[in-house]
């Protein structure tokens, strides 16, 4: 990779952060993909400005053969290259976007994992009991983290970036800055408010360095990595080992349980911060038997109304 290519990649990452508002995690992933592609081209005595759609296809096949890359991972890398070449084309560094001419990689939709009602009840009851038995900062914070995740469906990065000024305990609302710097207001339930109020007492003991709501034991921002470590530890302690659970699992659990309780898909879309309703529609896998019963009872031609 030559000096000029490094400049292109650096400018690209700055563009993703400053203009597109991508998370640091996504920016880092996109940077790695472009660097990997540049090295692949080097072996073919080409550079990033001399690319055909066929070379991008060959790169994806190479990753599949050499690294056993799944179709989802291939699609993610194709998306990164499409974004990169869109950036170069806007700056008139390439005549067209070669990645745009590569057909999408068909993927099988995988239903998101989620916890059952009994599992989430077990988890939250465990955290509350642990706090009541030992009212300390860590127990209060961990209980509040899990309650807010389940009550609001926030992304892990959104919870980590949450500022104190954006948490309204009185009205049970949080102001969230999501993907693409889109802002939204998300409500939470009374159980979450109780946990957040208890945590707020301990949060007030720390110097307010940067204003983040959730902090570590030193008063610094609680990172996404820190949150994931908390998940691993708490789930083990709570005895929920049957499923692989992450912060994102609670996001899925929130959406699934909300819809199962009769919530509207559009409301879930707003709360999750999805730009498109089609993204939210994956959650319609929930409780098909319940949906069938509702249909039979309400549709005028079902033959069961009034029975």
Automatic annotation (TrEMBL):
Q: Where in the cell is it found?
A: Cytoplasm
Q: Where is the Core-binding (CB) domain?
A: 3-89
One short Pfam family name for this protein?
A: Phage_int_SAM_1
Q: Where is the active site?
A: 155, 179, 248, 251, 274, 283
* UniProt xrefs under InterPro entries: CB, DNA_brk_join_enz, Integrase-like_cat_sf, Integrase_catalytic, Integrase_recombinase_N, Integrase_SAM-like_N, Tyrosine_recombinase_XerC/XerD, Tyrosine_recombinase_XerCD
Identify the main location. cytoplasm
Q: Which residues form a coiled coil?
A: none
Asked if Cytoplasm is a keyword of the record, the answer is: yes
Its keywords, alphabetically, are: Cell cycle, Cell division, Chromosome partition, Cytoplasm, DNA integration, DNA recombination, DNA-binding
Domain spans labelled Tyr recombinase: 110-296
Matching entries from NCBIfam families are given as: PRK00283.1, recomb_XerA_Arch
Q: How does it assemble?
A: Forms a cyclic heterotetrameric complex composed of two molecules of XerC and two molecules of XerD.
User: Could you say which protein family the record assigns here?
Assistant: Belongs to the 'phage' integrase family. XerC subfamily.
Q: What does this protein do?
A: Site-specific tyrosine recombinase, which acts by catalyzing the cutting and rejoining of the recombining DNA molecules. The XerC-XerD complex is essential to convert dimers of the bacterial chromosome into monomers to permit their segregation at cell division. It also contributes to the segregational stability of plasmids.
Read off the HAMAP family from this record: Recomb_XerC_XerD (MF_01808)
Protein name (database record): Tyrosine recombinase XerC
């Amino acid at each position: 990779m030559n000096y000029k290519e490094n400049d292109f990649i650096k400018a690209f990452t700055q563009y993703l952060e400053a203009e597109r508002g991508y998370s640091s995690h996504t920016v880092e992933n996109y940077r790695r993909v472009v660097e990997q592609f540049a090295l692949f081209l080097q072996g073919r005595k080409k550079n990033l400005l001399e690319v055909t759609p066929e070379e991008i296809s060959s790169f994806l096949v190479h990753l599949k053969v050499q690294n056993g890359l799944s179709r989802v991972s291939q699609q993610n890398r194709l998306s990164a290259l499409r974004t990169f070449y869109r950036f170069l084309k806007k700056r008139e560094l390439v005549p067209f976007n070669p990645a745009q001419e590569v057909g999408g990689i068909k993927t099988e939709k995988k239903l998101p994992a989620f916890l059952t009602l009994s599992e989430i009840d077990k988890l939250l009851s465990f955290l509350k009991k642990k706090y009541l038995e030992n009212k300390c900062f860590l127990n209060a914070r961990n209980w509040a983290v899990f309650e807010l995740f389940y009550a609001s469906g926030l992304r892990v990065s959104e919870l980590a970036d949450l500022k104190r000024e954006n948490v309204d305990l009185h009205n049970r609302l949080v102001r969230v800055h999501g993907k693409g710097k889109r802002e939204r207001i998300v409500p939470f339930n009374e159980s979450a408010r109780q946990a957040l109020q208890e945590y707020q007492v301990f949060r007030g003991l720390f110097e307010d360095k940067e204003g983040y709501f959730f902090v570590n034991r030193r008063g610094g921002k609680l990172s996404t990595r820190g949150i994931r470590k908390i998940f691993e530890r708490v789930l083990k302690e709570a005895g929920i080992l049957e499923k692989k659970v992450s912060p994102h699992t609670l996001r899925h659990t929130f959406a699934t349980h909300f819809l199962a309780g009769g919530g509207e898909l559009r409301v879930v879309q707003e709360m999750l911060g999805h730009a498109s309703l089609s993204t939210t529609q994956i959650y319609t896998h929930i409780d098909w038997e319940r949906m069938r019963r509702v249909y039979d009872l309400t549709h005028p031609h079902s033959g069961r109304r009034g029975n």
